[in-house]
Write a structure and sequence with these properties.
14% of the residues lie in helices and 43% in strands. By secondary structure, it is mainly beta. Strands 2-3-6-7-5-4 form a six-stranded antiparallel beta barrel. The chain is globular.
């Protein structure tokens, strides 16, 4: 079939419009794609990290183990693989936090743990053991504070709780916490059967 001059011109215009729409969509996706927190190559790498971070009073405040640390000059932060972070408290059991990876700010006051994140504290004199499982956890060391907006599970002794939209945790003794989204909880009372799930309660 032979196209007339007018039909050929319309076909070319439609093809050009299609190409323009394809190019625009591709450029929009590139512009809106999130950029990696760390850009380029690290300026140095440290193997088998074993570090102690001190408090303002000169006392050990945190201990850190990691098979590898990578420092990036762009934001002066550091990435770590498979970190084990121990938060030291003078009058309470330590918090031990494990993750697949972590990012530390240059001053060390901000820590973002990612992947499978597990935090636990052994039982104290009057406090039962606490265990937390989530996929991302932000620590603000100056405030003794941790938060996540991801699904989180927490057990405190025999009690259990989950929250769909995360939590806020003030982890220094005495601990306190808030939970968000749909919350399910199971509480065990001495000498009684476990209670059914309840919404909105705090351990």
């Amino acid at each position: 079939m032979t196209l007339s001059r007018r039909e050929l011109l319309i076909a070319l215009l439609l093809a050009a419009a299609g190409l323009a729409a394809w190019w625009y969509r591709g450029s929009q996706q590139l512009e809106s794609a999130p950029s990696s927190r760390q850009q380029g190559r690290p300026d140095y790498v440290v193997e088998q990290v074993a570090a102690v971070m001190m408090s303002d009073t000169g006392q050990p405040a945190r201990r850190l183990l990691s098979p590898q640390l990578r420092h990036y000059p762009g934001d002066d932060g550091s990435e770590l693989d498979m970190p084990v972070l121990r938060l030291l408290e003078p009058d309470a059991p330590d918090w031990v936090i494990r993750a697949e990876r972590a990012w530390f700010s240059a001053d060390g006051d901000e820590t973002l743990l990612e992947g499978r994140v597990y935090a636990e504290r052994a039982a104290g004199a009057v406090e039962p053991p606490i265990r937390i499982h989530t996929s991302e956890l932000l620590l603000l060391d100056d405030f003794g504070y941790a938060e996540t907006d991801r699904f989180v599970e927490l057990s405190r002794g025999d009690d259990w709780l989950s929250a769909v939209d995360g939590m806020q945790l003030w982890y220094e003794t005495p601990t306190r916490s808030r939970y968000f989204g749909r919350v399910r909880q199971r509480m065990t009372v001495a000498g009684a059967e476990p209670q059914p799930d309840a919404a909105g309660a705090r351990p």
